[in-house]
Structures are given as C-alpha cells and as structure tokens.
Amino acid sequence: MKKIIGLLFLFNIGFINAQLRLPALFADDMVLQQKKVNRVWGWADPGQLVQVDFLEKNYPAYADANGNWSVFLDAASAGKTGTMAVWAGETTFEFKNVAIGEVWICSGQSNMEWRMDMLKETYPQELKTARNENIRFMVVEKTLATSPQKDLPVSTKWTAVTPETVGACSAVAYWYAKQLQKELNVPIGLIVTAWGGTPAQSWTSFEGLHDFSRYTQNFIDKIHPLKLEDMSRKLEEGRETFRRTMEAKADYMKQLVQPGFDDSQWKEMYLPKPWEAQGFPALDGIVAYRLSFNVDAADAGKEATLDMPAIDDIDSTYINGTFIGTMSQWDALRKYKIPAGVLKEGKNLLVIKVRDDQGGGGLSDGAVKFAVTTGSRTIELKGNARYDIIAVLPDLTGGFGALQQQPAVLYNAMIAPLLPLSIQGAIWYQGESNADNKADAIEYNRLFPAMIRDWRQRWGQGEFPFLFVQLASFGAIQSQPADANWGYLREAQSATLSLPNTGMAVTTDIGNPFNIHPVQKQEVGERLAAEAMRVVYGKPNLLSTGPQFSSFKIKGNQIILDFKNTGKGLLTTVGPLKQFAIAGADKKFYWAEAVIVGRQIIVTCKQVPKPVAVRYAWANSPVDANLYNKEGFPASPFRTDRWE
C-alpha cells in the first residue's frame, strides 16, 4: 500500500512579493464544476488589480494586504468550453480548453492510487484505445505538511484521456469516470489525491480529530513541532549513518547466509508476518531471517521451488549459502527455482535479507504459500525464525510510524489546498491501514464519519456526495468461522451509510486473498458509478447496490433474515450459499446451511439447536461469499450480534 519515491515538503509561505500566481491545479484542459459558482484564486502584489476573462465575461478583483485575490465565475451548464485568461499588470496566464462538467475528488490509499499502467495484463486493450476528450484528470503529487497549505504540487497536470495519458490515471477513477461520462454525456474531471498505506486520520484535519485525543496529542507532541525545512537534512544524515553501518557490516552480511554461522544470540520472530505486527511499528531498514527445514534423502540434490509471500520491499534469498533470487516489487509473490545440488538430506537453511525503506516491512501474512516444493512433497516453512536487525533507517516521528501515516499531514498538504474549488463530490477507497488490529477497525465507526463531516464542513459546499468502496477480500481464508479485523472495518463502512448523500460499492467478491491490490478495478469503478447515479444524478429508485441485512427473527432452530435492496430477488451465483455462520449463547460460531426462500434467507446449523446470532462473510477474505440480488450486486457482510 505504498511506495514513496521522494517527499516534497511544503511550507505555509506568505507569498510576499508574489506578483501574479495561481494554484498549480489551474492548467489547460481543466474541468470546472457545472451549475455552481466557481472560484478562481491566487496571489499577486498587495493592492494589485487582477482580472479574469472566461466565457465572454470579465471578473476583476484587487489583491488584499496579504496578496490574496479571488473572483467567482457565474454558474454555467456542462458542455461549455473556453479559454480562461488571467492577468495583472504585464503578466498574463492563459488556460486553454477549460471545460464545464462534473468534478470529482478521488482519494484514499493505494487501491485508489493504483494506476491503469499497473494493470497492463488486465486492461491491455483499454490502454491501447482509451481516448475521450470528455474524461480529464490530474494527479496530486505525494506531499505532507504540519499545517494547512495554500497550494500543492501536481505530478500529472490536467489532461484528457488518450492512450498516451490514461496509464497515469487511477484505475478506479478512470472506470468510474468512463461509466459516468457514458450515462451523463458531460465532461468528467477527476482530481486524484491518494497515497498508499495511509490511514483515515492522516486525511482528516487536526480540528476534525478533536474527539480522538490519541491522534491530536500525538500531533501536538510529535508532529507539529517537526521543522519540515530541516527534514531533508535529517533524512540524509540518517541515510549516511545507514550507509556507514552497511559498510561496516559487509563481512557480517556475507557470513550470516552460511549454514555454519552462529545465530544463537538472535531473537525469534514468526514468519510470514510483517515486523510492524511483531513489536516494530516504526522500523525501516534491513532485517535478516534464518530458519531451518528438513529434506528427505529422496529429494536431496534435486531441483525444487521456493514459494514465499510478498516481501516489503526487497528481498535477497539464500538456501544453504547459495543465492536463490531477489525481487524489488514490494507487493509481489516470490517464486524462486532452487537449482540442483543445493538441497541436502536433513537440515537445510533458508536466509532472507529484507530491506524496507518506508512503511510496512517484512513478509506479508496473506493466504499464500510459504514452502519448499520438492519432487515428492511440500515442506511448510511457517513458524519461528531467528532474526537480526542489521541496520536502521532514520525514524523522525519518535516511534509513531511513517511520516505520511501521521494525523492531519495529508489533509494539510493534499486536501486543504483544494478547498476553494467547487466540486460535485468525492469517491474514496481506503480502510486497509485502519484494520491492522481490532481496536482500530472498531474505531473506524467514529473516525470515518468524522473525516467525511470534516471535509464537508471545510469545503463549505454542504453535504456533498461521498461515495466509498467497502474493503475487498484479502488474507488467509478461514477454514472455520473466526473473528476478523476487516469484518469490523467493513461493518464501520456500512454504518457510515447513515450519513446523508453517501453510497458504498461492495467488493468482497472481486478481492484476492493473495493480493491486497485486486486487479478488477473496472467493477469497482462501475459499482461506484451506479451509486452515483442513484445518490447524485436523479435516479433515487435505481437499485445500485446489493442486498443489505435489515432484520432477523429466531424461530426454533432457524434464524430468518430479511433484507433491503433485494431488487428482483435474491440468488446465489454458484452452488449453495456460503459464508453464513451461526452461534448460540456460548458465542461459538459454526458454519451454517442457508437457503433462499422468497426474499428471505433461512439459516440453520446442526451444532446450534438454539441459535442466537448469525454472521455473513465475516472474515478478512470472504471471497467465496455468494449472495447477490438478481441485478448482479453482491450482499454486504453483516452480523446480528454485538459481541466485541
């Protein structure tokens, strides 16, 4: 859910002697919101006259004592296009082909950030042929700040979709816009402002977090005092220390991959599992793992295969001192060939050296294979491994994690500068980084609505539409019903629908237990677009989502469930209904039989003759959950209990 190439830190400068300047988001091909007054703003010398011409009208303004100026363009209907001229004194800016249409903020973490060019195998034809003058997008560069900013850096300026440009667009946002443009036949403007691996509190203002003292106090104590102008220097000093440490330990690094190396003083850590979840929440650097496995005589000396989960970021892997492979893609599964002659009878040694530069680190704990496969068997490698922290990259937050994960810093840098802009609404794909533990996932019940209210209040455009994606399936598939952090997070997302003008796309069926970035972004975008048509664009009776649990009753050994959004009826896609579980008063859940009877579902379980509660798709990765309505939308996960 990342990665950072570089950090650009902005400062709350006063724009003294600014002459004429506009925010970076103003550019050729931009889209302005239809049927709303649109603000054009910027900076100039105090008292200077600034004039804006657009659609045959002139709008004058004088810069105030601080050099700030703004004008308000008359509302216009979609489809109008023109050149915007802005001038003061001898300085003139012209922005060509400015269109009036629908403007959407596209935000969240990596599943919103994931670009079309990262899905070349999934959408090869679309990448070659996409061309639409009426779908335009811009991408905000990743940046952070300790106070709200007036401007932001742009990594991709406003551009229309073509085969040459579409690769830089968020895939979810692109498919959303394509469907909306087809339905509405107006220009669609996308502002992509997203950052992988970031939690909701990073996207909320400091004031918006007033009910969350652990975040505000952390911000006051650790984040706000940081002098961002010194950050580059501090980071470089830390990297230099890291380089010196690596040079000093060069021989040590060579020795530790050998079977005869003495690791008796090393501590143990479970694999596969990220080290953030094992006592090192802020660790970035290099960690070495050593673990042993046994090989039968029949397989000794033969070729074999090593399968490992994704490793964040870079691994260098050895067996019995022989280099096996390396990969630098932090979210990719590893599959390495073990050459003939490497494996030996009896005890063998696997060594993994992992380098992590930012954010999460170590081996992913998703539902993936971690094993050596020989000609005769599969040797499981899961278990405790010895580890040593070889070198550490600088931690500038005092153990509170990566800078971009801190409260308010992304709001300050990547949302606040957009607030003067008129918009239609926002689409949001985030939550993975708030589901690392149960407490955080449950807290999302309050945090997520607080963030939405915060944005709406600060944008000053009323309760604008806010559409979001419920987390897809990811992680180990449970053989038995169990508690699930992502279940609580999805529940919090469903509860947020109580806010006005909200909509949710359910995606449990198009997730991937092995990849936190499922590739089926088209379905995500189109489901969001369906919600937009219902919530925003005048089709309140449109069925745009799947069955949602509404009530239940217990009759003998049965739990009878009622739903809303059943449309033309309920159905199961393949085979009997799955992912239903029942519990009695002992709170122990068992898989249950579920059958559709009209618009209800009746759930029973032989092990629970006196049922009390039922759950559906309550798992991190309920990818086989198969309850839909006949319109093709999947049911949202739910539970009837409140056993927390």
List the main descriptive attributes of the protein structure presented here.
single chain, 644 residues, alpha+beta, Rossmann fold, Jelly Rolls, eleven-stranded mixed beta sheet, six-stranded antiparallel beta sheet, 10 helices, globular
Write up this protein.
The protein is of the alpha+beta class. It has 3 domains: 31-217 and 404-535, SGNH hydrolase (Rossmann fold); 250-392, Galactose-binding domain-like (Jelly Rolls), CATH 2.60.120.260; 548-639, no CATH class. A hairpin with a 5-residue loop joins β31 (580-583) and β32 (589-591). The chain is globular and about 85 Å long. Mean pLDDT is 93; it is low at 1-17.
CATH homologous superfamily annotation of the largest domain: SGNH hydrolase
- How many helical elements? 10
Helix and strand content put the structural class at alpha+beta
State the distance separating the first and last CA atoms. Answer: 28 Å
Number of self-contained structural domains: 3
Q: What is the molecular shape?
A: globular
The overall pLDDT average reads 93
CATH architecture of the largest domain, please?
3-Layer(aba) Sandwich
* CATH class descriptor name of the largest domain: Alpha Beta
The percentage of residues in β strands lies in 25-35%
Q: What radius of gyration results from the CA coordinates? A: 27 Å
Helix content: 10-25%
Low-confidence stretches: 1-17
CATH topology of the largest domain: Rossmann fold
